[in-house]
Specification:
four-stranded mixed beta sheet, two-stranded antiparallel ribbon, 267 residues, Nonspecific Lipid-transfer Protein, Chain A, 10 helices, 2 domains, alpha+beta, 6 strands
C-alpha cells in the first residue's frame, strides 16, 4: 500500500507539471529558468532521462549499468551528452519533449506501484530502496516544476504530497554535511511544519533551542535549494539549525549552494 500511495503522489505531481507545460509557447522552452539558467528544455530533458534511468534500474539493471558506463565515459571524453542519445529519441519541439516525458513518467509510476518498498534498486551512487527511488523522483519532479512556475511567475497550489519531500529533507540532515566533508555540527534539529492542509507535521526530538518551524512549503523550497533561507519566513533557532538551513541539500550529487538571497524571491 505504501508504494501505491507514493506512486500515486508521483503520478499526480507529473500530471500537474504536465498541465503547466501545456500552457507554454514554443519559444518558452528555450527561456532560462532561475535554476542555474537551465532552459525549460534542459530541465525537462533532465527529468525525462532521470525517469527513464529509474525505469531501467527497476526492469533491466544490466542495461542500466551499461548505460551509466557509456554516459560516464562520454562525459570523461569531454562530450556533451543529455542522455537522450542513449534513449535514441530526438524530440524536435517542446510539445514532443513534453509528451515523451509525461508518458515515461506515468509508466514509471506504474512500475513503482507494484514494487516492494524495501526492495533494492541500482542507482548512480549506492543502491537504494525502491521507496527512496520513488521519493527522489517525486522531489525532483516537484522541485524542477518549481523552476518552471518561477520562470512564468505563476502561483502554484501546494498539496500535502510535499510531506514526502519534507521527510526527505529532514532525513538528509546528516548527508548535507557529510557531502561537504564535514561532521554534522550537533543533533538534528526539531522540525515542526504546517502542512498545506493545516495539519502539523513534526520530526526529531522536541526542542525550542534547536528548531526549524513554519510552512512545510517553504521548508521544501529551502531543502531542494529553490529558495534561500533569507527569502522565506521559517523560524530557525540555534546555531545547528541555522547552519543546516544555510546549505540544506536533499538531493544527491556534488555539494551545491542555494540561490543567492533575492534571486528566487518573486513571491
Amino acid at each position: 500500500m505504501v508504494m501505491v500511495e507514493l506512486a500515486g503522489d508521483l503520478r499526480a505531481e507529473g500530471d500537474d507539471l504536465n498541465g503547466a507545460l501545456m500552457t507554454l509557447a514554443e519559444e518558452d522552452w528555450r527561456r532560462p529558468t532561475p535554476f542555474k539558467d537551465w532552459t525549460v528544455e534542459a530541465v525537462m530533458q533532465h527529468l525525462l532521462v532521470g525517469d527513464w534511468m529509474n525505469g531501467l534500474a527497476l526492469t533491466d539493471p544490466d542495461k542500466f549499468s551499461l548505460t551509466l558506463e557509456r554516459r560516464n565515459a562520454a562525459r570523461a571524453a569531454g562530450e556533451k551528452v543529455t542522455g537522450l542519445e542513449f534513449m535514441e529519441i530526438d524530440p524536435d519541439s517542446g510539445a514532443q519533449l513534453r509528451a515523451h516525458w509525461h508518458a515515461g513518467q506515468q509508466a514509471l509510476c506504474d512500475l513503482f506501484a507494484v514494487r516492494e518498498p524495501k526492495a533494492r534498486m541500482k542507482w548512480v551512487g549506492p543502491d537504494m530502496s525502491v521507496r527512496s527511488g520513488a521519493t527522489a523522483r517525486l522531489m525532483e519532479t516537484w522541485a524542477h516544476g518549481q523552476d518552471i512556475y518561477d520562470l512564468l511567475r505563476q502561483p502554484r497550489e501546494a498539496t500535502d504530497r510535499i510531506r514526502n519531500i519534507a521527510t526527505l529533507g529532514v532525513n538528509t540532515y546528516g548527508w548535507t554535511f557529510q557531502n561537504r566533508g564535514e561532521a554534522p555540527p550537533g543533533p538534528a534539529p526539531h522540525v515542526r511544519l504546517t502542512a498545506p492542509s493545516g495539519a502539523t507535521w513534526t520530526w526529531n526530538e522536541p526542542s525550542e533551542t534547536n528548531v526549524v518551524a513554519g510552512a512545510a512549503l517553504e521548508f521544501c523550497q529551502v531543502v531542494t535549494q529553490g529558495r534561500n533561507i533569507a527569502d522565506v519566513d521559517l523560524s530557525v533557532v540555534g546555531e545547528v539549525a541555522e547552519k543546516w538551513m544555510s546549505i540544506a541539500q536533499c538531493f544527491a550529487g556534488a555539494p551545491e549552494q542555494p540561490p543567492k538571497p533575492g534571486h528566487r524571491a518573486w513571491q
